[in-house]
Specification:
Helix content: over 70%
Strand content: under 5%
Number of domains: 1
Largest sheet: none
Distance between the termini: 14 Å
Radius of gyration: 19 Å
Order of helices and strands: HHHHHHHHHHHHHHH
């Protein structure tokens, strides 16, 4: 099996885990506040990352100047990203936030191509991204559109900024993971991001909620930490290293589709023909963008095989 195909399979796994993270988060939020759940997830993931780095990469060296860049990645992809997301979610609707988060692959594509000159911008790539975005729009709105006004404006702007932050996290990490093992980069980024968030652990009620949490809640936390953080963040940067930032970002379109499928099957949530059409458009858009970059036929380079 080629490296590219393994990454595609791995990124579908990321889409699955991030798609199911909403359901796991709902379980965790029964006993934790959004901030407390985020903190325990970060801490648990950081412990796992730290142990694995010490076990498998104990002699791995990262240059001092690059550690500063990785700290920036931790601020963007962990601390700032989740703070913006949780704050924005409280100030806008679920539909609005889902649509606005889905703009991230578009920002990633343009930042990667126009600002950082990492990739070429193609018409078929743009068409595939817009098609997938339309699919997400139909999935979450049911063909009824979204409501944007003064009441949700600040929250909407925060969610839009959240998408830009994730795009920057994806694009800025490209040079670092080309130089170092993606797992080590993500481990340090997550550790640094968690350290930055530690002051929030002194928020009222955090220690009490940790002490009283049930086994079910902790199972949800471990699931989020191990699969949605450790595995998914590592595989995300693995994808960026091999496929590029814009192509990897396209898998963000699949996450909400997975979430909706899980909701329909297991939570008996409502769906209609727009949900089906939107889901089809998402997968079609991801395929078109992948095909436009030749990733299904691309030969492996020696640099990729080193990872």
């Amino acid at each position: 099996m080629s490296d590219t195909l393994r990454v595609y399979i791995g990124l579908f796994g990321v889409a699955f885990f991030w798609g199911t993270s909403w359901a796991a988060s709902k379980i965790g939020l029964q006993e934790f506040s959004p901030l407390h759940l985020t903190l325990v997830r970060f801490m648990a993931a950081s412990v796992i990352f730290y142990c694995m780095v010490k076990l498998f990469y104990k002699d791995y060296v990262i240059e001092k100047q690059d550690k500063r860049r990785i700290w920036l990645l931790g601020l963007l992809g962990v601390s700032i990203y989740f703070l913006l997301q949780h704050t924005g979610l409280d100030m806008t609707t679920t539909v609005n936030s889902s649509i606005l988060i889905a703009t991230s692959p578009i920002f990633t594509m343009f930042l990667s191509a126009k600002l950082f000159r990492q990739e070429e911008l193609t018409y078929s790539g743009i068409f595939g991204a817009l098609l997938a975005f339309l699919g997400v729009f139909l999935v979450f709105t049911g063909g009824k559109g979204i409501s944007i006004g003064r009441g949700t404006l600040i929250g909407d702007l925060l969610m839009l900024l959240n998408s830009v932050v994730w795009a920057l996290f994806s694009v800025l990490g490209k040079d670092v993971v080309d130089k170092y093992d993606p797992f080590v980069v993500m481990a340090y980024a997550y550790l640094y991001g968690t350290i930055t968030m530690l002051p929030f652990a002194f928020a009222p009620g955090f220690v009490a909620s940790v002490k009283t949490a049930s086994i079910t809640t902790w199972a949800a936390v471990i699931y989020l930490a191990l699969f949605c953080s450790v595995y998914s963040y590592y595989m995300w940067y693995k994808g960026i290293r091999i496929l590029g930032a814009s192509q990897t970002a396209m898998f963000n379109y699949i996450n909400p589709v997975i979430a909706v499928i899980i909701g329909v099957i297991f939570l008996k949530e409502a769906w209609n023909v727009y949900t089906l059409i939107g889901g089809i458009l998402v997968f079609l858009g991801v395929y078109i963008t992948s095909a436009s970059k030749g990733n299904f036929l691309k030969k492996e380079s020696k640099s990729h095989l080193k990872s």
